[in-house]
């Protein structure tokens, strides 16, 4: 098609869509019917705030029996639209008391206790001390059940005499996963790439295998959020006669999903 | 540590891991798994009670879209101590934990310029061209210090927040990586359900011995960014 013809047809299409849109003078609430989850207010009233936070003012109160569309959810707040096309934010606790068309209460996840079947994945970042230097680390983990999990981790070590990059796979075992602060044991293996920092004679980079064991604890602070701290003892299997030992302490945060 | 002792400890941990995982701590009886006993009358025939013909309605768990992430680019200036103030570009990924707290990951790059010494001396070059490139990453924790609303004219209001962040990461500069602590403050203006604008000021602090003596350098960054919520 000629570019001008293409542009013209695009313009006509856009105008037509615009006209069709303006001709549809139904409520936004009806136009979006079926697109969003719809619930009815079952409490005496439901408060809508202007923002997703406890400090935002309540600007509308929806009476019992009226329906609302749930547009989306951000942290502990739901953005909803009422039958008069007014959109605002309702708290998680108030939404828990609304009813679906089936008559059942809206299921709102309760994060107080982690259900390992529903949320087996975990990802986090930690920072700390590795053999006297600094270490930054990220990891992803999958829980087979509450007790046993597999973990993949990548770390960057930033020391005085060398930097390093570590890639590891391991197992973690948590004997009491239901505790708010749950201890765990870990065991794993991986590779490390060491880049010496010497300024005058720079020895070449080397890649070695390593193994580690360690222990730590995870603290379920709120919602999907965990704080985690752990200690690891590493053995680096060098090509020379002596293996190298490194101790590591680190702490950070994680999420389950 | 004695290598024999290490082998012993390693095998102990391996055993503990394997053994304890088989421990039935996590087994909870589920309602669905409990056996349902058929009610049979004493004479072996089915009871005369009318069995209700209930067709269970299949309740579909509704899917509500979550929008806790923000992703977007930023541009600004990065003042590398001794190496001039230069344009910086970067990207940010944020996860909102609650209405108060969030975490974010930053990745930025700038190209530093000449030190005053290099400029005045004429030809002296401390760094090669590729060593002048500065790249940093940072993983931070943030707190929405002052959430609020701003009003534009009579009809428009936008949600906003003044926040503070702190975190750790690494700065790669002059052929070396440095452990970096990042502290900062920023302002988020939420333009609609999916778009936000940011203004940020951050201080990247790291130790360097590039100019002969070991010192702590402060590298201030200012940035303007947009993010998309998803």
Going by CATH, the architecture of the domain at 75-229 in chain B would be Beta Barrel
Distance from first to last alpha carbon of chain A? 49 Å
Largest sheet of chain A: 8 strands, antiparallel, barrel
Sheet-strand content of chain B, in percent, reads over 45%
Mean pLDDT of chain B: 84
- What's the helix count of chain B? 2
Largest sheet of chain B: 8 strands, antiparallel, barrel
User: How many structural domains of chain A?
Assistant: 2
Q: What overall geometry of chain B do the principal axes of the alpha carbons give?
A: flat
Could you explain how this protein is built, in words?
The complex is a heterodimer of chains A (257) and B (230). Chain A is mostly beta strands. Chain A folds into 2 domains: 32-95, SH3 type barrels (Roll); 121-256, Beta Barrel (Porin). Helix content of chain A is 11%, strand content 53%. Chain A has 3 helices and 14 strands. In chain A, strands 7-8-9-10-11-12-13-14 form an 8-stranded antiparallel beta barrel. A 4-stranded antiparallel β-sheet of chain A has the order 1-4-5-6. A two-stranded antiparallel ribbon of chain A has the order 2-3. The longest helix of chain A has 21 residues, at 3-23. The relative contact order of chain A is 0.11. The mean pLDDT of chain A is 89. Chain B has 230 residues and is mostly beta strands. Chain B has helices at 3-21, 116-121; strands at 69-79, 85-96, 101-111, 133-152, 156-173, 176-190, 195-208, 215-229. An 8-stranded antiparallel β-barrel of chain B has the order 1-2-3-4-5-6-7-8. Classes of the chains: A mainly beta (257), B mainly beta (230).
């Amino acid at each position: 098609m000629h570019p001008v013809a293409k542009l013209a047809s695009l313009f006509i299409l856009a105008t037509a869509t615009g006209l069709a849109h303006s001709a549809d003078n139904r409520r936004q609430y009806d136009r979006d019917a079926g697109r969003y989850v719809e619930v009815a207010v079952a409490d005496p009233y439901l408060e809508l705030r202007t923002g997703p936070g406890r400090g935002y003012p309540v600007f509308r109160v929806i009476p019992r029996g009226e329906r609302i569309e749930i547009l989306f959810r951000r942290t502990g707040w739901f953005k909803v639209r009422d039958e008069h096309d007014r959109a605002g934010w309702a708290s998680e606790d108030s939404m828990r008391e609304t009813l679906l068309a089936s008559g059942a209460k809206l299921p709102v996840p309760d994060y107080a206790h982690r259900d390992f079947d529903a949320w087996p994945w975990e990802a986090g970042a930690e920072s700390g001390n590795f053999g006297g230097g600094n270490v930054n680390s990220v990891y992803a983990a999958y829980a087979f059940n509450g007790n046993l999990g597999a973990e993949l981790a990548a770390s960057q070590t930033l020391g005085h005499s060398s930097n390093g990059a570590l890639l590891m796979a391991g197992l973690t075992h948590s004997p009491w996963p239901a505790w708010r602060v749950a201890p765990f044991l870990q065991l794993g293996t991986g590779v490390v790439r060491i880049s010496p920092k010497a300024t005058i004679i720079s020895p070449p980079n080397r890649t070695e295998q390593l193994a580690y064991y360690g222990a730590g604890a995870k603290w379920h602070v709120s919602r999907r959020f965990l704080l985690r701290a752990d200690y690891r003892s590493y053995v680096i299997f060098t090509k020379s006669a002596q293996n190298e030992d490194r101790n590591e302490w680190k702490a950070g945060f994680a999420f389950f999903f | 540590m004695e290598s024999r002792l290490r082998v012993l400890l390693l095998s102990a941990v391996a055993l503990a891991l394997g053994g304890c995982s088989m421990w039935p701590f996590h087994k909870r009886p589920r309602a669905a798994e409990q056996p349902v006993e058929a009610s049979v009358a004493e004479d072996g025939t089915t009871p005369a009670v009318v069995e209700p013909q209930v067709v269970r309605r299949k309740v579909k768990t509704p899917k509500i879209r979550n929008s806790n992430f923000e992703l977007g680019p930023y541009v600004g200036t990065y003042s590398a101590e001794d190496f001039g103030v230069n344009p910086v570009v970067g990207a940010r990924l944020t996860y909102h934990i609650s209405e108060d707290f969030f975490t974010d990951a930053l990745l930025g790059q700038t190209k530093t310029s000449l030190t005053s010494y290099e400029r005045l001396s004429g030809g002296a070059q401390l760094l090669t061209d590729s060593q002048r490139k500065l790249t940093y990453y940072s993983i931070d924790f943030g707190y929405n210090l002052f959430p609020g609303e701003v009003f534009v004219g009579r009809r428009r209001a936008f949600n906003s927040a003044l926040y503070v962040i702190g975190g750790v990461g690494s700065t790669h500069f002059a052929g070396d990586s440095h452990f970096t602590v990042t502290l900062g403050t920023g302002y988020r203006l939420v333009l609609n359900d999916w778009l936000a604008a940011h203004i940020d000021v951050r201080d990247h602090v790291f130790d360097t011995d590039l100019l002969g003596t070991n010192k702590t350098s402060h590298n201030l960054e200012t940035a303007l960014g947009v993010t998309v919520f998803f």
